[in-house]
Amino acid sequence: MNMEVRNAQRPASQLDLSNGIPCTAQEPLLQIHDLRIEFRGKDETVVAVPGLSLDVMRGESYGLVGESGCGKSTTAMAILGYLGRTGAVTNGSIRFDGEELVGASPRQLRKVRGRRIAMVYQDPMSALNPVRTIGAQLAEVPRIHLGTGRAQALEMARAMLRDVRLPDAGDMLKRYPHQLSGGQQQRVVIAMALLARPSLLLLDEPTTGLDVTVEAAVLDLIAELRHRYQTSLLFISHNLGLIAESCDRLGIMYSGELVEEGATGEIFRRPRHPYTQGLIACIPDVDSDKHSRSLAAIPGHIPLPQERPQGCLFGPRCDGFVAGSCDRVDLKPDEVEPGHQVKCARWRDFSRREEAAVVVPDGDRDAGDAICLTNVTKLYGTSRGRSLKANEAVTFSVKEAEIVALVGESGCGKSTLARIVTGLDQATSGQIRLADRNIAELQARARPKKLLQSVQMIFQNPDSTLNPSHSAAFSIRRSLIKFGIRKGKAAVDRRVRELLEMVRLNPDLAERKPEQLSGGQKQRIAIARAFAADPSLIVADEPVSALDVSVQAAVVTLLLDIQRANKTTMLFISHDLALVRHVADKVVVMYLGKVMEQGTVAEIFGGAAHPYTQALLSSIRSTDPDRSKAAHIQLRGEMPSPVDVPRGCRFATRCHRKLGICEQEAPPLRRLSSSHEILCHIDPTAGQTVSDGATRSADITREPAND
Amino acid sequence: MALEGTAPLMNVAKRPARAKWRRIFRSKTALVGLFLVSFWVVLAVLAPILPLQSPTKPDVMAMANPFPSAAHWLGVDILGRDILARLIFGARTVLLVAPLSVAVAMTVGISMGMVAGYYGGQVDAVISRFSDIILAFPVLVLYVVLIANIGPSVINIVIATTIASAPGIGRITRGLVLGLKQQEYVAAARLRAESTLYIMLVELLPNCRGMLIVDGCLRIGYTIITIGILGFLGLGLPPPNPDWGGMVKESTTVLNVWPFMSVEPSIAIVSLVLGFNLLADGLREAWKP
């Protein structure tokens, strides 16, 4: 009741209500004070969180942001009292709704966990029990926490599944987790968390690992449910841009402590701490491309708990570090204005960080085609004479020294295409012309050395790109020898050092084992390996998707620098459209094995014509809180199986602008300009009549007003 | 521009590959195993220079009272031969034959598993079905049939062990390779057009190392038991070579009167097998990812 009154008093716009002032008068729902968390190992004690204080108000959404290893998940676990046998809260307090959780008995904690504080984890597959039905797992929550009967619990579960917008809730109850897609599983986990009507919901990177379109839908759902159930949120993420829209207040965490805290709008408009400024500068946004802004990376990496510096923890990575003021032991958070705190000795001296204005010159538009794909099709035979169409009649070309991005949801065939181009797989039919040869059906083994050398690949997973049994430089060295780039041990070693320096790694890392390197460092080695062969074409398959945003920016900037210096052509595969805008010259959008739209970056991001591209673009989160929120187009349902490709247009089952003809006939290829083409029945140039009617009948869901 | 990785990473300097082996010393299980195994290895190696009595020459005088005495610490057997000497010389045989058999079996098994796992499809089907057929035989029956037919000798024990354990080793290797061949570093090697043999030996095999060494230790233990059983069944090494299994068997007729004659070699077998098993457990524990 209290809540409703307060909510009613809240102003309508998100920005005004998020300045934190109306909340100060109230007792916070969650009050963390001077929290210290330690992990005791056999030989040493690691202080994961030295002293953290933060408050989450009733009905508030608080975003906790920081790079991996900064202690944000540990904090969430400490709130629930799940630190395992080695972890312990050694100082400070966690008060929830007036009740102390540090040192609470298991009995007390049981009453709080799941009932009043619920958690949504990163990986939905491991949060659900694979051998029990969704219904059984959901019904368990009200039965245990609310003491309801079986039938009533199932009814509540059904209602909740409807609330999280899962289709056919009755049927869903009888299914097992593996029968659901990742996005559906995460919705089930959210439903489970909300069933006991908790007053605080902890979200630990709930959308990592989901496709962009699914991610957008889950974030919208969280925002909507939060208002419906009046739940406070503690939203944990490494991506500042992602949670900007969902949070009222933000806390920026660095190496176990808060370096800045304030209202979301305030933090974005006037970030005071150099680390916050760095985090904002490294997020690619859709409004600029590589010709107008380059991503600024934060150099170095987060200190390990054992090697925290004295005074400002960010000091060693900060440009503005001044000995004497930044390394004082008694550094305290300072109030910029009510509700906005920053822990930086010199915040008054920093205005907004100068953005690195390395403007990339426009490429040579008259360059010849480096690689040209024509009707590339890949079929995998499955049982009973059916076949899986991984790629169907894919046609596009890449000019020399140009970067073409392949985008689409997982399962759209972009990785298969990459494997065919590099020769890890072969096409069923079609042509790929590279240096006057058709390489479509030529596997790596059958390719001549010169050709092998000219096409190199950068892989996705930093943990599997290097052989854990060999040193970091092993495969670089092998590449140099195998392709005869350098002869003799001394020459090879010299080149390895040069390559490591080129990817800005200390050459002394060469002899380390991969397990001793960070994800970003491993990916740099992989880049060095690819360029070691002196290639003319690089295929990069999601090269940075497994990295933290701050590291991502550094690796992407590096990759672009090297690509430009060597005039290498690049096929850049990604599902991150904002990143693509920053990297690519040309974009190819794929859906279910077929190219839906292709065009230059300006054409795609300026005037996407295909409904699928429009949906993908609308799922990008804006990092700018002042920007008006565009309507999010939510795609219905799931991508159909590539074994049963729909008749007519393959996107018709999910299209928001579907016409009658779409399900019957395959769409025509429409050429909008010399570089821009789409595969769609709707003609974007022919009057507004058709598309207007289609738009009206479509379910474009406006983002629910944020409060 | 500053180079990444200039600052030393924690624990890094202290953790090169050799540390993997050093981790064994933290595990008490492994230490006990290592102690038992090295106890026998040291005795076996030093056997010729130790002041032992002859393991084959009977001491007729001692047969009147075969119990342990100052002259014969562990007593003498029914033919009056010194049991201590026979145990230590017997260890030489066991510690030579068991590891040798396992080494040969591992070579064959790893090759089978590598080929089956890497190529998959028909090749895998043929190798796996063939392995299944051998694995379907009761191991002991397989040994007895083989040795009874080709006669007891070191070479034949090695052959029998290989036939009996290679399919199991192959199965483990195949499972590991199935997972490893999907790794991106294998794709990177294929893009360099490395030969299949190179990929198997350099990219895949080193990553199977841990599991295979643990399995090898366990298998040495099992093989020692098997050699003991074969000796007991009279299929061991031909007399008068000291053979632990044979020693147990020879004295079963006098078990009621002189039980130590059977118990002592049994304890020897148990301690060595236990040693290898504990060592395997300890390694598994120490190398747990």
Tell me what the structure shows.
The complex is a heterodimer of chains A (707) and B (289). Chain A has 707 residues and is an alpha/beta fold. Chain A has four domains: 2-121 and 197-269, P-loop containing nucleotide triphosphate hydrolases (Rossmann fold); 122-195, no CATH class; 369-603, Rossmann fold; 608-701, no CATH class. Helices cover 30% and strands 21% of the residues of chain A. Chain A has 23 helices and 26 strands. An eight-stranded mixed sheet of chain A has the order 6-7-8-3-9-10-12-11, sandwiched between helices. In chain A, strands 18-19-20-15-21-22-25-24 form an eight-stranded mixed sheet, sandwiched between helices. Chain A has a four-stranded antiparallel sheet with strand order 2-1-4-5, with helices on one face. The radius of gyration of chain A is 26 Å and the shape is globular. Chain B is mainly α and 289 residues long. Chain B has a single domain (27-44, 75-286), classed as MetI-like (MetI-like fold, Orthogonal Bundle). Helices cover 67% and strands 0% of the residues of chain B. Chain B contains ten helices and no strands. In chain B, helix 7 (184-191) crosses helix 8. Mean pLDDT of chain B is 86; it is low at 6-16. The chains are: A alpha/beta (707), B mainly alpha (289). The A-B interface holds A 42, 299-301, 304, 306-307, 316, 422-424, 444-445, 447, 449, 452, 455-457, 459-461, 464-470, 475, 478-479, 482-483, 501, 504-506, 508-509, 512-513, 516-518, 520-521, 524, 529 and B 1-7, 9-10, 12, 15-17, 26, 183-185, 187-194, 202-203, 206-207, 209.
